[in-house]
Amino acid sequence: MLSADGPSLRIPPARKHFGQHYLISHPILQQIVQAAKLTPRQQVVEIGPGTGKLTWYLAQAAKQVIALEIDPRLCEFLQQALKDNHNVTIIRADAAKYDYQRLAEQYLASKTARFKLVANLPYYLSTPILLTLIKHKLLFEQLTIMFQAEFARRLAAEPGTKAYGSLTLAIQYHMDVEHIMSVPSECFSPRPKVDSAVVKLTPLVEPRVVVKDEELFFKLVKAAFAQRRKTILNALSRAASLNLPVSSLKAALADAGIDGSVRGETISLEGFAELADNVSKLCLK
Q1: Given 78, 101, 106, 176, which is the most exposed site by the fewest CB atoms within 10 A?
Q2: Looking at residue 28, what is its pLDDT?
Q3: CATH topology of domain 16-203
């Protein structure tokens, strides 16, 4: 069994191209598990188990841990380090491209059962992994994830702030966001140049706002933030993906109570939803 001090086996050195920074602070590891609020009946998916320290704590609290690791060296290491933890399954996989539906069919006991997810994501893969998880959000009851601190601020940002952007709206459209704790860089080995933060994401059964055309809604959001310094009217009118006349955009903005001279970063999720519905009406005429 893996002890609280970590495996006795020789740990493979971190690889920069995988963005590996091993979390080594046991108090932080324990706090992450506490934040996940696991039960002995819980099925847990872990992304990026690294050296298995967090995996070991998860295995003590949950019924089963399915750990996805992209690095074949670490998969082999984890198989040995955690061999006495019979409720741990190690799968070599790219979490940004993985078929979580297949995982659910294999491990969840019923269609109503859901995983909890715990992850310490490589900074450079945070966005693609998160967008993949959004597509499978109904398979998860809760996601407790470590991100780069700046990235974590973007998820919970409010309109009018520098951190607010298209990613903010994508996440808040689908999930509740709660900041759990900050994690200083010295808690990792090798030590990264930036601090991290743990965030709890709770998937919403229904989106936070109701829109008539979800694809159009996200096209508008993406176009609004493609060039942040432009006004909302200029940004949308120059978006090839929309191809809408300025007169129609002015009417849609006015009907939504949005001044065309403001920037997209000042517009709320609800404001974008109303704008999208107004544009949708114009497109149907």
Answers
A1: 106
A2: 97
A3: Rossmann fold (3.40.50)
The residue among 262, 241, 170 whose CA lies nearest residue 208 is 170
Q: Answer for the pair 267, 258: CB distance below 8 angstroms, yes or no.
A: yes
Tens-digit pLDDT profile for residues 256-284: 999 999 999 999 999 999 999 999 987 65
Cβ distance 272 to 220 under 8 Å?
yes
Domain segments of the chain as ranges: 16-203, 214-284
Rg (CA), the chain: 21
Fold agreement (16-203, 214-284): no
Q: 164 and 157 in contact (C-beta within 8 Å)?
A: yes
Span 162-192, pLDDT tens digits: 999 999 999 999 999 999 999 999 999 889 9
DSSP 234-259: HHHHT-TTT---HHHHHHHHHHTT--
The pTM score is: 0.91
Q: List the structure tokens of 207.
A: 């989106």
Domain 214-284 is classified in which CATH homologous superfamily? Answer: rRNA adenine dimethylase, C-terminal domain (1.10.8.100)
Kindly give, in sequence order, each residue whose CB lies less than 8 Å from that of residue 32, ignoring residues fewer than 6 positions away.
54, 57, 118, 144, 146, 180, 198
User: Encoding tokens for residue 234?
Assistant: 């200029």
| 117-155 confidence digits (pLDDT tens) | 999 988 889 999 999 999 999 999 999 999 999 999 999
